[in-house]
Fold this protein.
Amino acid sequence: MMRRIITFIMVIAFAIPSFAQFETNKSRSRYNRDDTERYYGLRLGMNIASTSSESNAFDTNPRSGLVIGFAYGMQLSRNYPLWLETSLLYSEKGGKTHLNDEKVTYRLGYLQLPIVAKYSINLDDDLYLLPFFGGYLSVGVTGKAKNYATRESESVFDTMKRFDGGLRGGCGLEYKMMYVEAGYDLGLANIAKDDFDAVHTRCLFINLGINF
């Protein structure tokens, strides 16, 4: 899985400059232009995810996962470089641990809807720093727990809820059409069906993309 993610990221990293050639003769100062109020983007990246629990029974070590989707942003004010961005992502989370000396991996695949506010800081003519903060909602579409000793898999949604939500923060960097961001998802929703042991997702993400 890790090799696939790295391959995907390398492919988009080499493809971005070819897309960016379409913008070589244009100014990318759209973050402070009155005639440009929205943008669209593609995202591809990697999660480093884990879970934590009150009883430590579902404390897991980080595992890598895929992120892919698209984004839409709109300017909130013509007087200030403040933007609202929402995305629709397929985001893989979960974690890995050892139970009775047996390796167990939890794979949680979500359709995720982040909504964040971004503030644009112009570093150079075409270079922008974009700190952001907001939240996310997500629903689980795939979920497997695999025991590597017995090679058995079962649905995690027998013990886990499909809904998750929490806070999202981070920072992006845009140059012409090229975009990269890093951030953190802090799960606030209890994804465990057992009310006596709350389980929360934790996720560091790094995404590459193109903004149009």
Observations:
- The first strand starts at residue 38 and ends at 53.
- Residues 16-29 have pLDDT under 50 and may be disordered.
- Helices lie at 2-20.
